[in-house]
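Notebook entry, structure prediction.
Reason for the run: the old model in the group folder had no record of what sequence produced it. Starting over properly, with the input documented here first.
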Amino acid sequence: MTNIIRYFKQIQLTTNQLLLLTCSYIALILNLPFLLKISTAITSLSNYNIWFLLSLPIFLLCLSLVIQGLLAFRWITKFVLILTVICAALIFYATVTYGIVFDYGMVQNTVETDTAEALSYINIYAIVFFLIFAVIPAWLIYTVKLTYKPFVKELLTRIKLLSVSLMVVVIIGSIFSSNYASVGRNNKDLISYITPYKMFDASFKFVRDRYFYPPLKFQVLDTKPSIERTNHKKHVTVLVLGETARSTSFSLNGYEKETNKYTNKLGVVSFSNVTSCGTATAVSVPCMFSRLNKNNYDKRRAISQQNVVDIVRLAGADVLWISNNNGSCKGVCTRVPSKKIVTDKSNPLCDGEYCYDEVLLKPLKEKLNNLTNENTLIVLHMIGSHGPTYFKRYPESKRIFTPDCQRSDIQNCTHEQLINSYDNTIAYTDYVLSQVIAEIDNLAVTHNVETSMLYVSDHGESLGEKGAYLHGLPYAFAPDEQTHVPMIYWNDDKQTDFNLNCLDGISQQALNHDNIFDTVLSMMSVRTKTYRPNNDPFIHCKSQVAIARTTVTNELNQERIN
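New structure, fully documented this time:
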């Protein structure tokens, strides 16, 4: 080993030679996912140009040389190249292992993740992969000795390298411009796989948006919302915010395995055709609680205006956000009382990093036993089915489907083990939901309180379908598994605003996270100018009296009322 180290220390390269070798490694090895995907897109055409296909690696190499060559100053050349290789190797691992691409959304997810979540991705496979593709190449770059010419000659050689590389890029781009345009137009997702430059571009935009744009002035959407009810009973709504649950894994929605054996007996309504606002918590959670919709959603705007929990609280309700999700509420609960579950090992439901979702039941009970307001909204934010450590989301007693995947490098489990492990998380979520319903149903019986529950997940999850794992793919080409989410509604038999049989009849209509804002207002009977009746799916099944008392204007679409 000592002789090998001594050998590499004796190697002398010019800066251009080091650039060429490093860029070849980045373009031809660490960009294999991109090259394979674009090659597949080209060869799937009935009539493709073989020379265009062969030009791709050369085009990518020369483009990489231009980018890295501009940053290769004498005293920072090695630092820049090592940093680029390490970043590219990390993305290479994420793409090869989980099918993840680092666009703007994934950069945001990475920045906003916590230590426990980040550590869940570390395993022997990841360490070995990182050593081979990042540490060893970085060490080789660091070890070789660079030789420099006088400044002018060094500058001229660099200009020659950049000029030749740029010339090749221009020539290839000109000759095959129509081919690149055609493939790019029909496969817009491909650019997201260019490693690591897409991530650098996304990181620049993220830093610019978060740290260099001035904060927007906070926008008050309504100053005088109110809660209008015909009786003086207390009312409690529990909104359960799920994590990483996909609709296709719910037996309530037709899944062949019994993952909803608890709630299936409780008369819940399952909405089977709901899509998310995003493919990651950082987007979906603030989006679904915002008055903005998916098409015009912008996080800067969303966090700079009232969201639905703000409106409900201003209307006079007691609001409490209880979180068992280490990723926090993404700014949604900033202006309402909140409680974060402590993951201390002294709690038998916690392991020091995470807690099973049953831990939410205790603070829920405490709140239900101390109602101080006629109207209460409680938000329970679950850890749900967050991966890749699915096996840590359910206790041994709820390990129903076996064999399951008891490791974080899920790509090395069998498909059966992975599916079983994920299905256990869904079955456990179902159990917790049944306990939530039991608590509020008991309150309805013993204290004559009107109660209801709405469960909705923030996004779905890929479990190896089409080579994709986890979530967070750009929405434009994300698979249904990441965007099709479950939504469940329940209310006690004293509830008069909604007809459950009617709701069951519309349970298959197309809904999305844009409907959540108005659904929550509808459930809480809030009268506000921010409420849009045409966006409230529950309005089909509300009594005329309930509609009249919560709608600011009487000019409702008659078809929606009927």
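Summary: The mean pLDDT is 90.
The old model has been moved to the deprecated folder.
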